[in-house]
Specification:
Its EC number is 3.6.4.13. The protein has 111 residues and is of the alpha/beta class. The protein contains 4 helices and 4 strands, in the order βαββαβαα. The protein has helices at residues 11-23, 55-62, 85-94, 96-110; strands at residues 2-4, 27-31, 43-49, 72-76. It has a 4-stranded parallel sheet, with helices on both faces. β1, α1 (11-23) and β2 form a beta-alpha-beta unit.
Length: 111
């Protein structure tokens, strides 16, 4: 399983992680936003953290995935509005084992 967080990093670091991620298999992308032109054709599940501002942004976040293959999208929202990507990554770190189990279950279910 290949899960990556790219957050508040230098552009060169983000590009390196992005390239490694793109070349991997069994990809799950967790994102609060994606820049235009990002393309991950082997991603089968996109987990979006925080509400997009509109329908077009939601579709844009899913747009770089699948490319004719079966792909799924999931949107995680905080009970009281938006959750920041920073907070989501901290929650991930604190609950890592639970999250990894949950993601593995999704991989087994959705491929």
């Amino acid at each position: 399983m290949n899960v990556r967080f790219i957050q508040r990093k230098t552009p060169s670091h983000s590009a390196k992680v992005s390239d490694e991620f793109r070349k991997s298999k069994g990809l799950i992308l967790v994102t609060s936003n994606l820049p235009a032109g990002v393309d991950y054709p082997d991603v089968t599940l996109v987990i979006q953290v925080g509400a997009p501002s509109n329908r077009a942004q939601y579709i844009h976040r899913l747009g770089g995935t699948g490319h004719g293959k079966k792909a799924q999208g999931m949107l995680l929202l905080a009970p009281y509005g938006r959750i920041s990507f920073y907070l989501a990554s901290r929650i991930w770190q604190l609950q890592r084992l639970l999250c990894l189990w949950w993601i593995q279950t999704l991989i087994e279910k959705y491929g």
